User: Fold these one by one.
Assistant:
Number 1:
Amino acid sequence: MTTVTVGTGPVSFEDVVAVAREGAAVELGPDAIDAIDRARAVIDDLAASATPHYGVSTGFGALATRHIAPELRTQLQRSLVRSHAAGSGPEVEREVVRALMLLRLSTLATGHTGCRRETAELLAALLSHGITPVVHEYGSLGCSGDLAPLAHCALALMGEGPVRTADGELTDAATALEAAGLAPVQLQEKEGLALINGTDGMLGMLVLAIHDLTDLLKVADVSAAMSVEGQLGTDRVFAPELQAIRPHPGQALSAANLTALLRDSGVVASHRGPDCNRVQDAYSLRCSPQVHGAARDTVAHAAMVAARELASAVDNPVVVDGRLESNGNFHGAPVAYVLDFLAIVAADVASIAERRTDRFLDKARNHGLPPFLADDPGVDSGLMIAQYTQAAVVSELKRLAAPASVDSIPSSAMQEDHVSMGWSSARKLRRSVDGLSRVLAIELMTAARALDLRAPLTPSPATGAVVRLLRDAGVGGPGTDRFLAPEIDLAHQLVTGRAVTAAVASVIGELQ
């Protein structure tokens, strides 16, 4: 099993994916243990002081004016976690919870939170043993961090609340800890806050979305190339000199991919000569690099924000230079904004893909192909309703593109009077990314059928590899009508499993 070592520096995107999706084990590095111990010594000194210190010897939020006596402080931490574990709704996906736990551990490891070594080590042990606390869909406002989701995880460290074992069995935390040979912790001063006051849920979902979108935008270039080819479009508009006069980096990369994908296409070559009367293709074909490129640039911006957040210690108050200071770094606005921005990206890339697909099905626009690519139009409906499915998804993605981050709602007796709603932005982005993958799968199916119908003209080596991939997987070619849902599901699995980009890479190398 792979082991990710968490030190005082940021975890990488690859580490997050390995822990969240691949079940990698986690350990604390010696630098992290030293930093944790130094910060804890500061908290212990403050706890012994007669002066109240927020998070150490006071209440929380709007109740911060209450000074808590030493004999009540362990109860204070237990009460904080129990009361904040107030989520509701469906369970959040295991990969999201594991990402959230890893990122909270990464902040603990910076030595700015004041938690104890044994608390951080137990959090790492839960990840290594595959024990995943049950976290619910609703509960985070994305300010003071993802409080409720993180509190459900902190509850498990106390040996309380429901968890799932490595094999997915639902049990209670005490039972799961005992089975793994682990003992719950009794939280001390400041530790409750240290465990729940971060942007880790929304950040984990952002990192996973960036990981997925990076490949999906390559798939979008593949499906666009197949559509340009199948609709007898031109590849001349993707020439590098045309991209250079509008120097957006993502546009240049997408255009270069399209050029490489269409190289040596018999279909494109068949209408490249002087007799071709196709002056300009429709926008959905001609402007694919402009849309896909803008999406790439947006993902790059989101990755920059995510990298900064991964390098952050998000907590309040924090230990800095031997003292404890209040701050507002838990506000999720930077993450929330780019989560919303990526939902716009997913919606628009899906929208242009659906428009390319629709052109294949319209006899007036598909340049000689049968209506709806049907075997016997009228008797057969072909791919008519597959496009309906695309359209339904695209419509949903447009609704999901409405930003959550502008919808602040005050809480905590107006102490927390402006919040980011970043958790909500992240939850809808996950649905958006899933929807985009389904739309692209249907475009691939449609374009592949069209290329088969162009025979004896031959597709390019790269697009031909994708057609073969689909056929070998059980996504059928032209023919009489059949049950389409299983074939759509197969195509979708090839997209999300990265088989599409792998098939292309095996012929022309990795796409950019």
Note: The chain has a mean pLDDT of 95.
Number 2:
Amino acid sequence: MSAAACPPLLSARSLDVSVAGRALCTGLDLDVRPGELLAIVGRNGIGKSTLLGTLAGLRTPAAGTLTLEGRALADWPARELAKRRALLAQSHEDHFASTVLDTVLVGRHPHIGRWSDESDADVDIALAALAAVALRGFELREVRTLSGGERQRVAIAALLAQQAPVCLLDEPVTHLDLDYQIETLELFARLARDEGRAVVAVLHDLNQVLRFADRALLLTGGGQWVCGPVDEVLQAEVLSRAFCHPLKELRDDGRRYFVPA
């Protein structure tokens, strides 16, 4: 079954998002379905992260409704919501010493009873998540000794260990070298395609959006937005206005790219 034929996992209707009286997104109608990767794009400060946090249920929208699997997002108990929706934050603060493995095992907490310890199965899931981000062998490293890129990959591993069908990613390739950027986006595109996850990612590199995303939600300012298939939304004229700089489209072997004009 194609993504378009599947019932949506996450839906927004007439959603308004604002900060201090400034409209970031107005009247958003959005369905995120299993098997697709949706990219949120726009200029710095336009409201991408705020919108993502609202979709995750961390902020109350100014108006409109949000549903997860047909149930109002606000009606989900916290533990059950954490089993169904995972969020990768933009930054990660480690106030206390912890090993990499223990940090990744945090992703298993929604699946573990209140008074229970992690099982062997939970540890196996965490180790598999570390392998997926090329960090096997780092289990006993103290997380505060890691580089920025390594710490980002640990955060991604923790999200993978959560095993939620909806993955909301705020700048997932921040701090990563180019090879890990591509591997990370390939990983989430594969999770969507092969496992039916619904992935929403805030991304800055338009060429990565062209390469990996199925649809794009472009925030253009003043609460305005454009959403649709990537090839329809990412057009040079539209992007030039949205990013306040002329962009030129190039083509190479059938693939589209954008460069500053």
Note: The longest helix spans residues 178-195.
Number 3:
Amino acid sequence: MRIPRRGLLALAAGLPATAARAQAFPTRPVTIIVPYAAGGGADITARLLAQRMTPRLGQPVVVENRAGANGVLGAEAVARAAPDGHTLGMVVSSHVINKAVMPALPFDPVADFAPVMLAARTELALVAAPAPGVTSLADLIARIRARPGDYAYASPGAGSNVHVFLEWFARRAGLQMLHVPYRGSAAAHADLIAGRVAFTLDTYAAVRPHVEAGRLALLAFGGPQRYAGRQEVPTIAEAAGIPGYAAFSWSALLAPRGTPAGVVARLNAGAARALGEAEVRDRLATLGAEAAGGPPEELRALMEGEALQFGALVRELGIRSDG
């Protein structure tokens, strides 16, 4: 049956505005804001996706670093951006933890964003300076327990996800320790190698050169399962006897709250195809990360679950940020 011209116009006028915007998207370059310094895992992941999403979206996808305040400055810029899909953010798990450690956070890390896709899961490794008689995490725990208050652990900042993970570990393992925050990993690694702090938790990619050179001892991984790339190394939960302990990071692509579902779906599809490329997956593997993917709903469930879990944990541990 042929529909009269007036009928076609009426149907077009009745199309939801969000569908029309999704069909037109994107109309200009898309910016992925990375709220951390260049060269980190989130930055590298964002650039891998941007390069491959560009031809699929038909507009340039560019990455902009806006580091500061443990990711708050850049994330706020995303939250305040127009909800049209042209400004996105690539955040890591500390984005969610910030809600618990920063009472004056200027946005809600879950409610003020539209999840697009979980990009990658990143392995965190617990490392210590090599020492006689310390060949396992159990050995290290025994040594620290024997001298309560004499040892310190390092993190990249008070209130960071690593601070939360390590304080959680120390409390559950019965360790009385000092927390020493650093501004980034490099300074922490130097003091760790020199023996001024006992251990730290960092991405496997960041510590692997020191481990391979014998400057640091790899004692455990933080994830819920053993890392596929080093199956012989136990998890912290196994080695320390802490059931339910899991410390790993992730990177995720977010849009501002209110971004049309059709636009989110197109971004999700473009990111999914990028993550499906072998070159991308191989590059992430060199960072100790595993390409993830999945629908926006899965990312929202992850963020909501961690907000509840770590909110309760941070209150129990009494942690606050220095950001």
Note: Residues 6-12 have pLDDT under 50 and may be disordered.
